[in-house]
Amino acid sequence: MSDKILHEDQKYIDGLAENNTFIIQTIYDKFAPKVINYIKQNSGDVYDAQDVIQETIITIYNQAKQKQLQLTCPFDAYFFLLCKRKWLNQLKKANTKEVTINEEILSKEEDAQVLSFESTVFENKEALFNEMFQQLGEACKELLKATFKIKSMEEVAKSLDISYAYARKKKSLCIGQLTKLVKASPKFNQLNY
Amino acid sequence: MEDQDYIMFEAYLSGDLSADELNAFNERLNTDEQFQKAFKMYRDLSSHLEHNITNEQESADFKANLDVISNQYFNKIDDPIGTTTDESGKSNFYKYAIAASVILLLGIFVFNQFNTPTYKDYNNFEPISLTVRSSDNAIFNQAEQSFNAKNYEEALVAFNSILEEDFSNLEIQLYKGIALVETNQFEEADDLLKKLSQGNSAYKHKAKWILALSYLKQENKLACIETLKTIPKEAEDYKRAQDLLKKLE
């Protein structure tokens, strides 16, 4: 992936990461109508579309912020696939009524398929990480919050009244603990590790 | 993985390994698949925590901004006016009503040309709607009702308790700004509105407009003019701002 050329639409990704109001508005103006149409044609309404689009944009923002998103295809195709997959997953979960899915000819863009799939995995990962973080012991939670908020380990140690070496060791063990929790979760298999 | 491995991961990520240790680390990364997998997960978790904890405020700002833009967009496409093709007598009524109100507005406009503008000419704020998406929340309900009933003292109490829970809610901050101006708490209002107008949210231009109105109410003509001039063409209140500017200059 890294040897591929960035698509010019990377500007949307960067704009989201910068919380650029103009870019966000442009994304709505240019790319929302197609998603709204699709959801309306597939058992949803405009409110469903609003939620799906908003959640999708937050996923892209989170991924972009962690510098894990390099667009090698048009934003349009990527964004649509991501919204579409999210909507189909929601329909599957709800599963209350007979679902009619109007398959249409999808973009043949292979990159868009791959990238949107990676974003879906990323989203699942984030959700599981959040869930598992809540299961950590209070001491670990507190220490991790402090280390990532304060940055300087010396200050963290001081604020928690422990030695620098211990604070640092504790940080790695707490993240280690978290990796074990994540691995033990039944949802771990969806994460592509 | 052993505790020792996690300690190594952390040292690697913070760039604290010596050259020898680094070589050994990379070697193991290339040959030991379990080690590599565990490291990838550690790295991802670390990056996740950093994003979620370090950038908590930034992310909250982003979400608040996104919320506004999303609502603006969907309100626009939901808006039945402009999409109705109703050609019955009812729509004629609206045509006349609109014509009548245009004439009325023109009258007010001409009349106002000969008067010094005051805050009262401009403080007809649109009703706010906070409960569409969080209808279960009593405090949002109270804030909305008090604000729309122009009971700004009570609205302020509600806004404050919302902000206690969610201090980065920019929409509420803006409405709080309006309520502060209405209740003549100018110092706090101006501080808040300045902060909002210097930010990068969808509310920044609205905040400038309210700030200008605050100065107008304080009869600080110069500051009002200066603020009005910063409202750009694409802002929703541009026309009103220009109109007020003409009257002041």
UniProtKB/TrEMBL annotation, chain A:
- InterPro entries named among the record's database cross-references: RNA_pol_sigma-70-like, RNA_pol_sigma-70_dom, RNA_pol_sigma70_r2, RNA_pol_sigma_r2
Question: Which GO biological process entries does UniProt record here?
Answer: DNA-templated transcription initiation
- Ranges in coiled-coil conformation: none
**Where do the RNA polymerase sigma-70 region domain residues begin and end?**
27-95
Task: Write one Gene Ontology MF term.
Answer: sigma factor activity
A single Pfam family, by name?
Sigma70_r2
The domain of life for this entry's organism is Bacteria
Recite the UniProt keywords alphabetically.
DNA-binding, Sigma factor, Transcription, Transcription regulation
User: What is this protein's record name?
Assistant: RNA polymerase sigma factor (Sigma-70 family)
Q: From which source organism is this entry?
A: Winogradskyella epiphytica
Upper taxonomic lineage: Bacteria, Pseudomonadati, Bacteroidota, Flavobacteriia, Flavobacteriales
TrEMBL record, chain B:
Keywords, ordered alphabetically: Membrane, Transmembrane, Transmembrane helix
User: Which Pfam families does its entry note?
Assistant: TPR_19
Q: Where are the transmembrane segments?
A: 93-111
Q: Which InterPro entries match?
A: TPR-like_helical_dom_sf (IPR011990)
Q: What is this protein called?
A: Tetratricopeptide repeat protein
